[in-house]
Write a structure and sequence with these properties.
alpha/beta; Leucine-rich repeat, LRR (right-handed beta-alpha superhelix); 6 helices
């Protein structure tokens, strides 16, 4: 009853509050939309209608978001802050946005997130942080995002992701990390992401993937690894993807095309639930005589020749060994016969 009374009280006040609108902004009472895009604001304006459902503050000059900047906006579901030069988020900046579902902080200058960044964002489903200057991620900054489904961290400066960073994001379905500076994918980095469907890691510096890196990704349908620094792969790394169907994108890496790599790709292609979408576009970086050649051509040319060479060498060795055994046996029999003849022709008194 008390909750109902509070809601009725708030609803009664919305009529008057909805008449509020910050200067230079456009407020649409019927839809709960407040448009403050590109108005030159250096701070979050006051006098927001309490019934605001969508607030667009993109393309301003906010620089720093102060604590409690959005207090009173309990109805807010979508907040757009893209392209506003934001460098710093003070603690408790989003403290009253318990029902926020989408937060767009893309195209800003953020280098880090405060430890309490997610504490009031338990309803958030989509978080856009692409095209910032983030260098590292902390578990504390993300732990409260238990309902998050999409996280875009692309085109930042992230060099490493500590194991367990994403462990609180059990409902995450899309994770975009392309265009960063990752060099190694370690076991545990993607732990607990059992709902993850799309993982984009293209345009990084990844040269090593630990064998157990993808073990927990039971729902992964797309894995993008194009444009990294991969030269070799381990088949077991992808065999650990226990999924119904996973599409792999692997072109644009400096592959060292030898028959070991050929065998790894052959095994991957033979696994029913794994699909290399861009296999025909995978080209060799080395050795020098194969630079620019298609791996598919190497499969049908180099490795057939190598197999034939190995077979010829093996047969030659076997023939040589057999011939040596035969010759040894002949010599043994010859020597035995010679010894027998000499023994028969000797003087009986000598025996």
């Amino acid at each position: 009853m008390l909750a109902t009374a509070v809601l009725l009280f708030l609803a009664g006040g919305l009529t008057e509050a909805s008449k509020l609108c910050p200067p230079h902004c456009l407020c649409y009472d019927s839809s709960g939309l407040v448009d403050c895009r590109a108005r030159g604001f250096s701070h979050v304006p006051r006098n927001m209608p309490h019934a605001t459902w969508l607030l667009n503050l993109g393309d301003n000059h906010l620089s720093e978001l102060r604590s409690h900047s959005f207090s009173g906006l309990w109805s807010l579901r979508i907040l757009v802050l893209s392209g506003s030069g934001i460098e710093v988020l003070q603690p408790q900046v989003f403290s009253s946005l318990a029902f926020l579902e989408k937060l767009d902080l893309s195209r800003n200058e953020l280098r880090w997130l405060p430890p309490d960044f997610s504490h009031s964002l338990s309803s958030l489903r989509e978080l856009l942080l692409d095209h910032n200057s983030l260098e590292a991620l902390q578990f504390l900054s993300l732990e409260g995002l238990e309902n998050l489904e999409k996280l875009d961290l692309s085109y930042n400066r992230i060099q490493a992701v500590a194991p367990g960073t994403f462990r609180g994001l059990s409902r995450l379905r899309h994770l975009y990390l392309q265009g960063n500076q990752l060099s190694v994918l370690r076991q545990g980095t993607l732990a607990m992401l059992q709902s993850l469907e799309v993982l984009l890691l293209s345009q990084n510096n990844i040269s090593k993937i630990e064998t157990e890196a993808f073990t927990s990704l039971h729902s992964l349908s797309l894995l993008g690894l194009e444009g990294n620094q991969l030269e070799h792969l381990k088949f077991k790394t992808f065999l650990n993807l226990h999924t119904p169907s996973t599409h792999l994108q692997l072109a644009g890496n400096p592959w060292d095309c030898d028959c070991d790599l050929h065998r790894v790709f052959s095994k991957i292609l033979s696994v029913r639930h794994l699909h290399v979408d861009d296999y025909k576009n995978i080209s060799c970086h080395g050795p020098l005589q194969l630079a620019g050649a298609s791996l598919a051509w190497v499969d049908s040319q180099l490795c057939v020749a190598e197999t034939a060479t190995v077979l010829v060498i093996t047969v030659t060795v076997l023939v040589t060994v057999i011939a040596a055994i035969v010759m040894a046996e002949r010599n043994r029999k010859k020597n035995r016969g010679k010894n027998w003849t000499e023994a028969e022709g000797s003087d009986p008194q000598d025996k």
